[in-house]
Amino acid sequence: MSTTTKPSYNILNFADKDGEFRRKPSVFRNTISKDPDAIFTPEKDRYHLYIAWGCPWAHRTAIVRALKGLENIIGLSVVDYIMGEKGWKFSTPEETPGCIPDTVNNAQFLSELYFKANPDYDGRYTVPVLWDKKLQTIVNNESSEIIRIFNDAFDDFVPETKGKTFYPKQLASEIDKINDWIYNKINNGVYKCGFAETQDAYMNHIGPLFEALDDVEAILSENEFLVGNTFTEADIRLWTTIVRFDPVYHTHFKTNLKTIKHDYPNILRWARQIYKIPKVADTVNMTHIKNGYYKGMKKINPHGIVPVYDGPDLNVNL
Ligand SMILES: N[C@@H](CCC(=O)N[C@@H](CS)C(=O)NCC(=O)O)C(=O)O
């Protein structure tokens, strides 16, 4: 069935005809709530998260799952770091250390989940995916929404983290505001540079990217964290991009005007501080990150050679 179904687009192509990369909106956008008429309600062991360690969007969900102590509430599968012609594929940890096969759907490829959820699906087969084992469908495949779900939906099952929030009400509008420009210019900005297929498309986004990084540097020179001197989802969302910046984006995506290590001391301090938060370091798999980009994106790096540098050491005492 699903593994032989072909999408209407070339899976390994990212840019549009004009050379610009435009990310398609995620399709599955449900939430999980205690509302009496909600379809998806909070339950222990009902939901399963599919990620790639290399993916910055999926990485956000892995961090919030860990920080909210949801490891025994929501299961985890990790795809292989190489995304091939059939999309993300599952491997055993013996084949590729760090992978966790799909014991829920026994899928070989992530695409199978998308077709199970919707046989007519013709979008991209992206991670992360939050799967409902009960209704056999995808709840949500948008990282920014999955982290909001994890932030409070399962609080009744984990008393130790109940009420711990990365989206405090009093900071919500400020968080939304900063997320918006950081997403457009930095999180997605690196992809707009890296997936560009014309010089113009690349030039359109490289300036705004570094202006935004300069703005972040200025904020962090006066504040411990991005918003309200509190560790929030805005930090988590930016952090997964920063961790990849020097070892991957600077080289692979040609975002090489500056580096975090040499040009952004406050971003580096902040990145190290977050790395030190218990459980965060366990979510960083630099082998998957580097291989995923350098070996997985042959269009950009045809020989699949992986540069040696792992980025600045984040594991330092501050
Ligand atoms: N908007 C999505 C983006 C997720 C996304 O693009 N994931 C990439 C990996 S970094 C992916 O799975 N790409 C596969 C594809 O586009 O075919 C989110 O934030 O959850």
From TrEMBL:
GO terms for molecular function: glutathione transferase activity. SUPFAM superfamilies: GST C-terminal domain-like (SSF47616), Thioredoxin-like (SSF52833). Glutathione binds at W88, R124, Y125, T126, V127, E142, S143. It comes from the Eukaryota. One of its GO terms (cellular component) is cytoplasm. The active site is at C55 (nucleophile), Y191 (proton donor/acceptor). The record marks Y249, Y293 as: Lowers pKa of active site Cys. Residues 140-293 form the GST C-terminal domain. PANTHER family: GLUTATHIONE S-TRANSFERASE OMEGA-LIKE 1-RELATED, GLUTATHIONYL-HYDROQUINONE REDUCTASE. This is 15818_t:CDS:1.
